[in-house]
Amino acid sequence: MASPLFSAITSHALLIILFVYLSSISNNLAAKHSYSSTHHHHRSSHKSSPFRNEKLHQAYIAFQAWKRVIYSDPSNFTSNWVGPSVCNYTGIYCAAPPYNHKIRVVAGIDLNGADIAGFLPDELGLLSDLALFHLNSNRFCGIIPETLSNLSFLFELDLSNNRFVGPFPRVVLSLPALNYLDIRFNEFEGPLPPELFNKKLDAIFVNNNRLTSMIPPNFGANNSASVVVIANNKFGGCLPPSIAKLADTLEELLVTNTSLSGCLPPEVGYLYKLKVLDVSFNNLVGPIPYSIAGLAQLEQLNFAHNTMTGIVPEGVCVLPNLANFSFSYNFFCEEQGICSNLTSKRIVFDDRRNCLPERPLQRSNKVCQPVLEHPVECFEQHCNGPFGGSVALVPTAMPTAAPMFSPSMAPTHT
User: Fold this and answer.
1) Model confidence at 158: pLDDT above 80
2) Going by DSSP bridges, is the β-strand pair 139-142/163-167 parallel, antiparallel, or unpaired?
3) Rounded CA separation 20/22 (Å)
4) DSSP class of 248
5) Partners of residue 117 on adjacent β-strands
6) Is 365 exposed, middle or buried (0-12, 13-18, 19+ CB in 10 A)?
7) 121 and 69 Cβ atoms separated by less than 8 Å
8) 296 and 321 in contact (C-beta within 8 Å)?
9) 340-347: which pairs have CB atoms within 8 A and are 24 or more residues apart?
10) Is the pTM of this model over 0.90?
């Protein structure tokens, strides 16, 4: 975790950059906020106030309401949340908004790693100029307030590694400027709304929740995401062919342990910018799509713990940037060419528990034979159900996937 000083410097610099960016895309929003700010200023100009502008007064109301529902703050992050100087509160960052460079407003909240317990009050909706909202690795609980829909400039929302509950927080769908969404490691449940994938988001992290139902068929519709992580949920169904729409942007796709079934669609091979593909610990069947041999940027590839069959194609093994390739705990019966000796290419690989002749630590013939006698024809695999279920072979029992890194251990996204 970054030091508080480093965090403060990077947060402040990022806020400046964000507001410059937002100023170029938010003329309509700016007009609304400008009117509101001017209106409040003229209305209160004849009164003596400890606040420099009405926006800071509203922020003060929001933070005092929040402080009242914080029940544990072991590092005393919020101990100086007193008085009208809200820009001096720990974890609070102010900057000039896009619509008025003569005033300062609360533009960022960064309480990452503070270990605070409490919940989020409705009054946070008063922070209408907020661009960054980072609450990674705390003990906040409850549901996400609908009043966050007022945060029309919110660009990054990180609620990861907390104890939030309820259905997927649909309020995020109404945030027009949102670019980065991270709600991983919480207790959200129910389906992912298809509308999520219609938003122009650069990063989507919803892994390690209790989300269920199927992966929406418009999974790739947003055509702007560079990172999509939906791992360690209980979605089921197929990976939709619409994933191909992310070809120009997607670099990381992690769908680990999501009860994914059916065959891996050949459209995955259209994602020519992809660097990380992890579909391990699922119920996938059928062969590795030959189209994956075209992913020249691919560095990490993981098919482990599925029921995939057929050959491991040499075209995949000779990918120029491949550094880590795992296809263990499947039913592959042949490794083409160099695939049987990837250590010669300095590639870390794992081919255990397959049906590969003369390779160590393979499955027994008794286990392999029933599967290999009934090869899967992927063109006969059909997705059905409201969001696309799958007709597939029932896999053998496999170990449960280990949790992915918690946000506090993972590198920060910039």
Assistant:
1) yes
2) parallel
3) 6
4) T
5) 72, 139
6) exposed
7) yes
8) yes
9) 342/317, 345/317, 345/318, 347/317, 347/322, 347/323
10) no
